[in-house]
């Protein structure tokens, strides 16, 4: 809650920094998934060279279709990439909840950003280095693992830091995360339309996130020179003081006023709880279990939303091709209709929550509502995927894929942002940091569950 004498966010500097930091955290994931055609083409052509041209066994062909090469996906690249990006995210999010006590936040945040920058530079260099397919696959997977591990530390630490600011700043951070994918898709389209050879195109593409990560690092350090940010950092250091207690109480009562009669009763209860908790204690202790009981609906919602999304995106959706033969359209079909549309609509979905928070924090049916998105799984599996064994194509026309993608991504953005915004409303102010950490863990859990499921759905194709 802001008071009259609080410093103001001049020129929206902190808002812009939060947006850029959000964007910075998701550059690794988005730049790797959007570059799937580059990786696949490289794995195919390297295998091609090694196994001798036209070997029947590997069914390879360098002829380009849809910007991807027609060759058997022996490496199961999309699935492994999704899993090896999301597993370290889950593990390191957990790790971060322990190490945050011992490693200062500045070291964790700046250190992970520098590590991410170095790994992006390594990936850019790798574009120009020739090697056999297996080594390229192994090196790429190791890069994906480490870059996402650092990304998890960065994300967890930033989410923790953001809980010190009013809620608007967390929404901005989430919006920034949503923008990272659009940034990657646009970088891909720009480098593809440059007309350069595929390797130079890929090099230009991978240099973009190096610049993006560098800008994020600069923004993070700038944050400590903004009065508004410093005011909120210092406020958190006096959390246990009387000032905080008074503020908490006024905030709770204000919350009651805003929410009407029922809200007022709840506020009084919360106030009592807060008073009971603070008697004789220097710092109010927070029980994970108590917080979990209050936010489990939101936690389940985010697990289901990401579980459904990652089970098909990008592992299955990146395999959908256009039914038309037009060379230009085929080349740009997947970058535009899969990645660009997904990311723009995902971002719009996330942004809607800054205006509408429906259904509210007390709705118990939110997980069921988001589970209905499961319908998209068979819909995408029945789109035009040439490489399949059991199913046949039902939705051949490109328009079907575009329509499914619009609704799939819009609902993803909305149902990701909604529980993240509602969860802090269900807890006491001193529990909000724990809530942020728990929700980040469930977010990563959902992503890993989805990545695991993607292997099953790919096998059913
Ligand atoms: O680390 C992460 N944190 C938050 N969201 C993520 C992360 N990785 C992927 N996504 C989300 O997964 C969807 C598909 O790309 C997008 O909504 C993206 O923001």
From TrEMBL:
InterPro entries: ENT1/ENT2, Eqnu_transpt, MFS_trans_sf
UniProt keyword annotation of Transmembrane present: yes
A GO BP entry: thymine transport
Intracellular or extracellular location(s): Basolateral cell membrane
UniProt membrane topology term: Multi-pass membrane protein
Pfam families in the record: Nucleoside_tran
Any one Gene Ontology cellular component term annotated for this protein: basolateral plasma membrane
Keyword annotations of the record: Membrane, Transmembrane, Transmembrane helix, Transport
TM annotation in the entry: 12-39, 80-103, 109-127, 139-165, 171-190, 202-223, 295-316, 328-345, 365-383, 395-416, 436-457
Keyword match Transmembrane: yes
Source species, domain of life: Eukaryota
Molecular function terms from GO: uridine transmembrane transporter activity
Family of this protein: Belongs to the SLC29A/ENT transporter (TC 2.A.57) family.
NCBIfam families in the record: 2a57
Protein name: Equilibrative nucleoside transporter 2
